[in-house]
UniProtKB/TrEMBL annotation:
It comes from Candidatus Nesterenkonia stercoripullorum. It comes from the Bacteria. This is Amidohydrolase.
Amino acid sequence: PSWVMNALGGIPSTIDPTIEVAGKTVSGTMIDLLLRPEVLERATQEFHQQKACHGAEPMLPADFAPPIHLPWPDYISGPHGTRDWLSTPQ
C-alpha cells in the first residue's frame, strides 16, 4: 500500500513531521511526569499492576548470542549503487 512508502520510504516531507510530533509528544509526557508526581505515581502503579497480571518472560533464552556479525547497510550513494554494505557476513 502507498502508506508504506510514505512511512518507510525515506521521504523527508512525510517522515520529518512524524519525528517532530513524536518528539513533542515524548517531551510533553516527560514534562508532565516531572511536574506532576501524582501522574508518575499512578503510571508506576498501573505498570506494576499490569506486570503482575500479564507478566512477560523474556522471549529469548538467557544464553542467546546476538547476531552481531550481520552486514550493516550504508545508504550513501557509491560506485556500486545506493545500498552498499559496510561489512560482510561472517
